Amino acid sequence: MIRFQIAASVVLGLALAGPAYAQTPPGSQHGTLSQKINNTTISIAYDRPVARGRTLFGELVPFDKLWSPAANRAAILELDKDATIAGQPVPAGKYSVFTIPGRDEWTVIINRTWDVHHFRYAGESSDVFRVNVKPETGQHMETLAFYFPVVGPYNATLNLHWGTTIVPISIEVAH
Fold this sequence. Notes:
mainly beta; four-stranded antiparallel β-sheet; single chain
């Protein structure tokens, strides 16, 4: 009987303590985005860092240094069919997205190694391409976001937006 009481006490204690052990939600929530352009689906999965009053580019994210526009893991770009991104051909598949933010120009990098921590860039030898893009200024975006402000039948613009910085990336698909 004593064993039963001890076992019951342990089970009851764990049941009552369960909520105390519940995980705190992550500070950077996971986000996904999917857009169909003609017959091609483009998806992005990423953890969304939050500005929290910090100066973002030039301080939190240094200029002229490699950065993944995501938290925890590198942002994952997936294409179900071949596409052209920023004028560069990209075969169907999964890729990581990295950038090199600059004051006047950003380098956008699409890399073949897609399942990586956001500090574990696989290196230039795994790059599909690098392209320079002029950033734009817009309304403050507290949580980093990828979105499609323009979608046409065969092309679209994918924006990377955090703080007041917007990096537009053109995408074209087959007719």
